[in-house]
Write a structure and sequence with these properties.
Layout lengths: L49 E7 L2 E5 L3 E3 L1 E6 L4 E3 L5 E4 L5 E5 L2 E4 L3 E9 L4 E2 L3 E6 L4 E6 L2 E5 L3 E3 L1 E6 L7 E2 L5 E4 L5 E5 L2 E4 L3 E9 L4 E10 L30 E2 L6 E2 L4 E4 L4 E5 L11 E9 L4 E4 L1 E6 L2 E5 L6 E9 L2 E2 L8 H9 L16 E2 L9 H11 L18 H11 L11 H9 L18 H11 L50 H14 L3
Parallel strand pairs: 2-11, 13-21, 22-27, 31-32
Antiparallel strand pairs: 1-4, 3-8, 4-5, 6-9, 7-8, 9-10, 9-11, 12-15, 14-19, 15-16, 17-20, 18-19, 20-21, 23-30, 24-30, 25-29, 26-27, 26-30, 28-29
Helix pairs in contact: 2-4, 2-5, 2-6, 3-4, 5-6
């Protein structure tokens, strides 16, 4: 199987860190030919003694449920500076408006204005006062995920608590460790660590999380079942053949949607039915080996295409991995060890789960470390604007254009290099500007009528707008039942900004607006937003 991945090219190189090298020096000879008390080969130690500290910025604003970051610098008599953000004690005049999380990070709790300052306790230095304005982003909410879960006695279930609000769901502030967790009866389950419950007896019960700033409580359900009992045989002559689990070893091309090569089976497939939005699976940790780039990944069996398809997965303990069942999938699930990049910049980002899943599907390569290009420890850079050729190429690969792969959705066909050139040159005056890695995919999408360029140009390096991306995704889904109805974009307050050529071409369910009621159709689309659209495409195709 060809790896279904698009390489987003790296941007600026990171500047190397500057190390301070204090050179040894010798006192000048003023009156005496020698200075016997000072040996020239021993450097004099220069101690940094701060005389004042300053917090920046002087003023900033944030919303309820979001964070504001301050930085504290210390200065000595020579105006040399040191960053002391992490060693200061941080203070706020009104803790009901915001609360300190770590260092200079303040979480907005309620609307209002207050003062933030820092103290360098070792030197008894107070900083300047800085204003913090917290605006109302709606009513604060505390939610628990999953909302319901089922486990067996002696098994565990990890719940997470998130602080949200009614006007803006970004970001989901994880406050699991800051909540007090309780359960109605320890005869059914007990609390082991924040949000982690262990089943002790069969029954149904609610679990609660209590957050104090602001004072919020949320509940979820937990069902604990006894270990599976042997089925009672009925007197019948009917013999029911068991449903055989799909194979996981020695799979032919196209039978597993992940980053080949490098996958290994870590546990036998299990028929879990519908395990819920969030579930856990055990695997044999000893089979993982020592490759740091191999990670446990949960897959579900797609009966329509007869393929194992990766889900968002997170290791939670040795031999246990959490899966995110974002498409309400059911049936057979398995844990495999897969070679894939590790993205170091997605933790806490609103598109974390989406990025995790498309990583398993091989649709995101990220940006390699310029000092170690072969490393799979990379950055995803979800806030970076993507260009037209990048999204077009990725959509084409999802539709099954990659040579050698089993087509998932045979809308477009693979052509020779000569045929690709003919299509591109006949359609676009800037065909020569289309990079080699994108040419077969843009040609295939063009021939199928899924992209048309900008006039007589494709403009491969132009930034892609939100409305352009929505139209491309809608075109890819045009023959899929349930996606043919045009979306009503007049509900957005800035609908007048939608280009005329896009009117009626955006399908329902492909793109959403912002909490303020705008669509922002002509705003360049970021990588995180584009991944959300790609996940919509995947679900529409039955992945």
């Amino acid at each position: 199987m060809a790896v279904m991945a698009v390489c987003f090219f790296p941007g600026n190189l990171l500047a190397p860190s500057m190390a301070v090298d204090l050179k040894p020096f010798q006192l000048p000879d003023i009156n005496k030919p020698e200075v016997p008390d000072i040996k020239p080969d021993i450097p004099l130690e220069m101690k940094f003694i701060p005389t004042n500290i300053k917090v920046t910025p002087d003023s900033q604003s944030t919303k309820v449920g979001q964070t504001a970051s301050y930085k504290c610098m210390a200065y000595d008599a020579n105006n040399s500076s040191r960053d002391v953000t992490d060693i200061c004690s941080w203070h706020i005049k009104d803790p009901d408006i915001a609360t300190n999380r770590t260092g200079g990070q303040y979480l907005g709790v309620s609307a209002g204005e207050t003062i933030v300052y820092a103290i360098l306790d070792e030197y008894k230095l107070d900083s300047n006062d800085c204003a913090l304005i917290v605006t109302d982003a709606g009513t604060p909410l505390l939610v628990i995920e999953p909302s319901a879960a089922t486990i067996l006695v002696e098994e565990t279930q990890q719940y997470r608590a998130y602080l949200r609000n009614t006007l803006d769901n970004y970001p989901n502030q994880d406050v699991t460790d800051e909540c007090t967790w309780t359960i109605g009866s320890d005869s059914i389950a007990i609390v082991e660590t924040p949000g982690l419950f262990k089943g002790t007896g069969a029954g149904n019960i609610s679990v609660s999380a209590h957050y104090y700033k602001p004072d919020l409580t949320a509940q979820a359900r937990l069902t604990v079942k006894e270990a599976l009992e042997k089925p009672q045989l009925e007197e019948t002559s009917i013999v029911v053949e068991p449903y055989t689990a799909p194979a996981t070893e020695n799979l032919p091309e196209g039978k597993i949607l992940d980053r080949q090569p490098g996958y290994i089976t870590l546990a036998k497939p299990q028929n879990l039915g519908n395990p819920g939005v969030e579930f856990f699976m055990d695997f044999n940790q000893n089979l993982m080996g020592t490759n740091p780039d191999r990670h446990p990944k949960i897959f579900y069996w797609n009966k329509t295409y007869s393929k194992w398809v990766a889900l968002a997965s997170y290791p939670v303990a040795s031999g246990k991995v959490k899966g995110i069942n974002d498409g309400n999938y059911e049936g057979w699930f398995v844990v495999m060890g897969c070679i894939q990049p590790t993205f170091i910049d997605i933790g806490g980002h609103w598109a974390d789960k989406i990025t995790n899943r498309v990583n398993g599907l091989g649709l995101l390569e990220g940006y390699p470390d310029p000092t170690n290009p072969s490393s799979l420890t990379r950055t995803a850079d979800l806030e970076r604007i993507i260009i037209r050729s990048e999204l077009t190429t990725t959509v084409a690969k999802i539709l099954g254009l990659a040579p050698g792969d089993t087509h998932l959705y045979p809308t477009i066909t693979y052509m020779t290099d000569w045929e690709n050139d003919q299509v591109l040159q006949s359609k676009y005056t800037d065909a020569a500007q289309i990079p080699e890695w994108a040419r077969p995919y843009i040609a295939g999408m063009t021939k199928a009528g899924l992209v048309s360029g900008k006039g007589n140009r494709f403009a491969p390096n132009d930034q892609l707008t939100r409305i352009e991306a929505a139209v491309i995704i809608s075109n890819a889904l045009r023959d899929v039942p349930g996606f043919g109805t045009p979306a009503d974009l007049t509900v957005y307050t800035d609908s007048a900004q939608i280009p005329e050529w896009a009117i009626g071409k955006v399908a329902q369910g492909t793109i959403g607006g912002y909490p303020d009621g705008t669509l922002r159709p002509n705003q360049p689309i970021k990588r995180g937003e584009a991944l959300t659209l790609l996940l919509t495409l995947l679900r529409g195709l039955g992945w």
